[in-house]
Amino acid sequence: MSSTTIKRQTENQKPSNPNFFLGVAKTAGGTFLGLTLLTTSAIAGGMVGLAISFRNLPDVRVLNNYVPSQTSYIYDIKGVLLTTFHGEEHRTTVPLNQISPHLKRAVMAIEDSNFYYHKGVNPNSVARAAVVNLRSGGVEEGASTLTMQLVKNVFLSHQRKFSRKLAEAVLALRVEQVFEKDEILEMYLNHIYWGHNNYGAETAAQSYFNKSAKDLTLPEGALMAGLIQAPEVYSPFANYNLAKQRQATVLNRMADLGWITQEEADEAKKAPLLIGKPRAWQTSRLPYVTDAVRQEIIEKFGQDTITKGGVNIQTTIDYKMQTRAEEIVRNAHRNLRNSGVKADQVALVSIDPRTHFVKAVVGGIDYEKSQFNRVLQSRRQPGSAFKPFVFYTAFATGKYTPFTSVPNYTRGFRDGSGYYRPQNYGGSHGGGDVSINHALAISLNIPAVVLGQRVGLDRVIEVCRTLGIESPLQPVVSLPLGPIGVTPMEMAKAYATFANNGWQSETTMIMQVADSKGNIMLDNTPKPKLVLNEWATASLNSSLQNVIQNGTATSANIGRPAAGKTGTTSGERDVWFVGYVPQLSTAVWIGNDDFSRSLGRGVTGGGYAAPIWRQFMTMALQNEPVRYFPSASQFTQPKP
Predict the structure, then answer these.
(1) Do 246 and 174 fall within a single domain?
(2) Residue that is last in its domain, among 155, 180, 205
(3) Is 272 among the domain residues?
(4) By C-alpha distance, which of 536, 547, 541 is closest to 438?
(5) Residue 536 maps to which CATH number?
(6) Residue 339 shares a structural domain with residue 277
(7) Which DSSP string corresponds to 296-337?
(8) 17, 40, 240, 411: which has the highest count of C-beta atoms within 10 A?
(9) Do both 262 and 386 map to the same domain?
(10) What is the enclosing helix (H) or strand (E) of 520?
């Protein structure tokens, strides 16, 4: 029903009570005959003087571009609402035609039944208020029209003073000269406070009735209209019976005006209401995710954008995958503790290599106990999970293949920190030559260090930068063994580029950001670029598949082609497994926030992190077809 139709329905309606407009007002001391006429004359004759007195009032034309504070919404990739962000005002604005005609009529009936016929100030209401206020000697009752209420909320204080009421009247007259009635009603319904931190009809309807403002029924619209006078007092959350009494007052008023029949009013009073629950300060469904997204939006656009700007943010996160990942991490941590592993934390992050969209981020085992996101904020030693960066660099030179032999022995090396002689896991100094394929499969340390020296550690670091690792790295001899901290996110996105055979897009948790009018502010549509040599990447993928098939990560076998690498640091302080299929790259880290604490003797990435990875990947790939990595034979080996 359009506003024009509502206006027509209100035309020539006479109230059932002939004294309603108080054309003749009585007091204890006598009768104020002609008060309405006197008030009307005062308003008509005195507004020029008032306008001069209040020439320093705000320019109401700013309402042309006025955008009230609005709530921002964060969704998963499929449109599941994850959380909202706002300041003091929880609000979503909607056009007038997206607000139920039942609500519009109910509001006008109880607040300003002559809205479409006055010019901003209603003489009859002024007369009535004047009587009450003269009796009391102060401002006890207002004479506010919807327009006056709007300017009071936007421009003025809420102090009950005559000077403020006069300013309110002047501004209301100015607003009515500049704006159409429908525009004023739309601004009013989107701006007014409805209780429980809900501003505007849309957020109030969602909070009280779990539906949009356009879908409100007559009983619901009448109840909401009744809240405006004292939202927390008449709130159905606070006192349902009192809310129903106030609803009845609104319905009776609508019937008196002839806008509904008495039968419709009585039926609406009897209708049961399905009341929702306050939404303004609801907690996030995925706090590790939404905290990270919020911080990124603030960095890009500023604090006000997310707390007042009413932006809609679609993340890359899959809600179902994320919740299952959190469950897997919690259960895995409990099992680790039960098996004697002294691990305080487990973190997991998963990325789609085809888009580099982040699908799941589990920053710890319990957000309520610790909001620290270990996926993004914790730099931990990756151990042998760093070795693929060295071996890829070697393949990219064109001098090495997975079957090239490299020494499994050395007398040691000198660098700026002194003399360093690497050992294999368990303390062995090695012996003889081994193939790169075998060295990776069983995670030998010495061949990785030797190869790092041959290809140059600066080149290894350059590859790491290309893959998106931003953590500080130094070209120390031991770098191939992962002694320098990186984040799980950095590891997962680097391996994701391996999984996509060298093609890379910007890794992100945000797919798109739109303002409250639908204008796109940020679009992270993938723009893949080839950043690695395809032959070298395919060769590395072949070797890393062997890690799962025959090496240190057989416990990561998921029954389809997959590649990955275990990582275990000295003293068993950090254990990792980072692995991938063409559709998903996932990093799992286990450790303690106190780096000095060991997980326990014999705890390895293959023994403890890889099974968690397998459980997650098995779940995440249930509906994904089996895909194979490209063979190195499809590409040309680079020339040395």
Answers:
(1) no
(2) 180
(3) yes
(4) 547
(5) 3.40.710.10
(6) no
(7) HHHHHH-HHHHHTB--EEEES--HHHHHHHHHHHHHHHHHHH
(8) 40
(9) no
(10) strand 520-523
The rounded distance, in Å, linking the Cα atoms of 124 and 20 is 9
Catalytic one of 3, 69, 72, 111: 111
Residue 304, in any domain of the structure: no
The boundaries of the domain holding residue 518 are 322-634
Backbone angles phi, psi at 501, to 5 degrees: 55, 45
Q: Is the pLDDT of residue 34 over 50?
A: no
Amino acid at 85: F
Of the residues 156, 180, 204, the one at which a domain ends: 180
Domain count, the chain: 3
Q: State whether 404 and 261 are in the same domain.
A: no
Q: Is residue 599 a contact partner of residue 335, using CB atoms and an 8 Å limit?
A: no
Sign (positive/negative) of CA torsion 610, 616, 620, 624? Answer: positive
| Residue for token pair 């020494």 | 407
pLDDT digits (tens, 9 = 90+) for 37-61: 444 444 444 454 454 455 667 777 8
pLDDT band at 33 (very low <50, low <70, confident <90, very high): very low
Q: How far apart are CA 70 and CA 49, in angstroms?
A: 37
How far is it, in rounded angstroms, from Cα 394 to Cα 382? 20
- Examine residue 302 and state whether it is found in any structural domain, yes or no: no
Residue 111 known to be catalytic = yes
Handedness of CA 18, 20, 23, 26 (dihedral sign): positive
42 and 160 housed in the same domain:
yes
155 shares its domain with 256? no
CA distances from residue 131 to 32, 185, 485 in whole angstroms, order as listed: 9, 28, 77
Q: Are residues 328 and 450 in the same domain?
A: yes
Q: Is-catalytic flag, 370?
A: no
Query: Do 360 and 268 reside in the same domain of the chain?
Result: no
Mind listing the pLDDT tens digit for each residue in 342-361? 999 999 999 999 999 999 99
615: confidence class by pLDDT, cuts 50, 70, 90: very high
Cβ neighbours of residue 302 closer than 8 Å, sequence gap 6 or more:
none
Chain-centroid distance, C-alpha 8:
43
In order of 195, 235, 269, the CA distances from 273 in angstroms are 18, 13, 10
* Inter-residue contact 225 to 111 (CB < 8 Å): yes
Query: Of 100, 113, 144, 384, which residue is the catalytic one?
Result: 384
Q: Report the CATH number at residue 277.
A: 1.10.3810.10
In a domain, 480, yes or no: yes
